[in-house]
Structure formats: C-alpha cells, structure tokens
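Message: A physicist's question: would you kindly supply an amino acid chain plus fold tokens?
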Amino acid sequence: MSSRLYRLLPLLLVLLGCARTPTREAALDALVVQQVAPDLRALEGACRTLETHAATLARAPSEATVEAARGAWRAALIAWQRVHAFHEGPLDETRALVRAHFWPLRVPALEVLVQSDRPVDDAHIAQLGVDVRGMFALEWLLFDARTAPALHAHGPEGVRVRALVQALSRDVAQHAARAHGALGGAAFATRFAEGGQESLSRLVNDLAATVERLASERLAPVLEQHARKRLRASDVQGARSGLSTEIVRTQLAAIEQLYTGAQPSLSTLAQAAAPGIDTRVRGRFSKVRGLVARLDAPLEQLVMRDRARVMEAFRAVKELEVALKVDLASALGVTLTFTSADGD
C-alpha cells in the first residue's frame, strides 16, 4: 500500500462514516506522522539552538551568555526526554540516543578531558566514550560546582571548558539532525506501518521498558539511597541542573501521548480489542499524571522532606508498568521481549 494511501486512510474512514475500527497499520502510521516526526523535528531545533548559544558563549563569555547556554541546554534535554520512549527506527538506527543521551557519566574521565591540552575538535569528540560526551557531559560542564566558575573566566581553563561546551553541543546537534533525517520524509512511517504486528510489539515493548526504567532507575534509587542515608545529588539523573523530576514527568507525558495522542491511536486499537483494558490503562496514566504533578521539587530534594509523596508516585508508576506489560500486551497480542539493562 502506498504512503499516500496510509496518509489518507484515517480521513477516508471519517468521510465515509465507516463504522469499522481503523487498522493497526493506520494507527502505527499516524503515531509516526503525528507524534514521532514532530518530536524529532523539535529535538533538532532545540539542539541547534543549544549549538548556537554554546558558540556565543565561547566567543563572548559572560554571566548572560552562560545563563542563555544553560537555558538552551534545559530545553534540549527536555526535547531528548520527549523522544526517549520511541526507540524504534531513527533513534536506534543512527544510535543517536545512546551517543547523545547516555547516563551515568564517567566523571574522572571528564576531569581528565578538561585538564588535557589536546585540541578540542570534532575528531577528538568522536573518539570519546558515550559516558564522556553528550547531554549529561554538557550538564556537568554547565552546572557542576567544579566547572561552572570557569565558564566565564578568561584564563586557559575557561577557554578549555567553553571549547568543550561548544564541541559537545555541536556533536549533540549532529546526532539529533541524523535522527530526524533518518525519517526519510514519509519513508519510515510507511515502513513502520507495514511492519504490522511486529512493529506494534516493538512499540509496546519500548513503552513498557521505558516505564520500568523510570521506576527502577529513576525513582527507586532515590528512595533506596535516601533510606540508607547515602543519597548524593550526583547519583540522580538531572540533579546538577535541577531537572530530575522534570525528566520523569516529561517521559511519562510522552509515553501517554504515544498511547493516546495520535488519531487513530494505540488506545483506539485497545478500545476495539478490549474496552475494559483500555479504560484501565487510561486510568493508570491519569493517576500517574496527577501524582507526578505533585512532585514540586527535584527528586533529590523532595525525598528529604516528603518521602511519602515520592513513594506514592513510584507505586503508581509500577502500577502503570504492570498495566502495560500485562493488560495492554494481552489486549494487543504482544509478547514482551525487552531487557532493561541498557544505559541511557
């Protein structure tokens, strides 16, 4: 079936007053066209803006250009979080996510990088491990107490730190551009839709795996380390920039959008197959959304004064995880195959 027909199918169904449920292929195509493609376009735009501000900082260091670069970094990180749950196609094929968004960092290697006198160029950055580059290496350079003072200093260390910020920002923008370009216009949407049940299974696996990681790698460690009185902000993703809670909130919102946002959507398919399950899954999303909205401070700070609130959100995320793994997978005939040991 041609890509043009896939584009027109949802509209034709409405115009013809057809009572049939939209096909699985139409829902998969709509998800890429209406959700994934705009998010990847926004990601490239945010990373290009970061690249621009990093270049300005390198050229004219000041408190104002430092703050502008930090603001651009925050916007770019949130854009990466938006695309995080959809691992298929562009992000996987280009390896953009792992190369630009890996965490945790290898801080000792970053410290060596700052002290090195090797010229900072694209070839050098390309040789770095994924745990010494990308968005979280930039977070360390822009926000960590050890490096932040050098950002607008005029000595050699300041020049070095700003050069690294510029080079790493350029590298991140290149990865975002490659991921966006890998859509190939409508080519990936067509290919993904034609994958049918296989594509659907991979998608549900990605959603379930992302929710599991949010519970086990973002919320659970904060609760466990706090209970052991060993919680360090440096061990929490996004703590240096104060975005640890926003990371969780953004990923959950993106997952819910992937489930309900397109027309037709995964929710449409689940509703047709098992209305009760769709209602239950939507209810889990609604509960999580409400509880995460109550997390009004970075996780590493909030857990110190209101551990119960973080625990309540954690339990709701676990309930959502079960709903996706058991209920939604059953309704859509999906077999779960993912493992959650990969870094991001």
Observations:
- The radius of gyration is 21 Å.
- The chain has two domains: 24-181, 196-331.
